[in-house]
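REQUEST FORM: STRUCTURE PREDICTION
Request ID: SP-0412
Submitted by: Lab K.M.
Chain count: 1
Length (residues): 207
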Amino acid sequence: MNTKSSQPKSKHNKIILFLFLAVLIGPFLFAYVLVQKSQNHQFRTSNHGDLITPVRSVAKTTFYDLEKKEKFSAKKLAGKWWLVYVSPPKCQQTCHDVLYNMRQIRTALGKDSPRLERLFIAHPDCHLSVCETYLSESYPDMHRAQIKPRDFDILFGNISNFSERESIGEIFIIDPKGNIMMHYSADMEAKAILSDMKRLLKISKIG
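STATUS: Completed
RESULT:
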């Protein structure tokens, strides 16, 4: 008799405990979700770059390392944020300005600078000998790569501005999961990109 009567009582106690925890933890959980949504909404409405939706994954893209003269997969990009400059066929003064600004942006991140890497992707028609000579001498710590023309078009074809890409190039942000998620014109002010980058690193729990 005691065993049978204790079972409903035990279930009743568990229900009371569950309700107590729900009342105790519920408000905190709701507040956390609300803050996260608020931060994401704030970023979407106050960013300077163009958010790419849906994001474009680089997972299936094969890159060619201009320094090491070897292929590498997109897995090499995982786990870091990447500020990417896609060059025009012929680099003018804008190219030099962009490369300089990208270095300054990373430096300005201070303690968060290790979370961001820089990548130069050469246009398929770029004169590689000229690009590589200049980059290796002026920005030796910047990663340099090229993509096959077909893959280049697939990756950037409908998420970029063709006229800008061909004249001054474009800037993109790739997240730690390998997604191209933000786009800028190459003549965007460095402080605007830095502002977005700081906000991304603050919001993000990865990379």
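NOTES: The chain has two domains: 1-46, 49-203.
Reviewed by: T.R.
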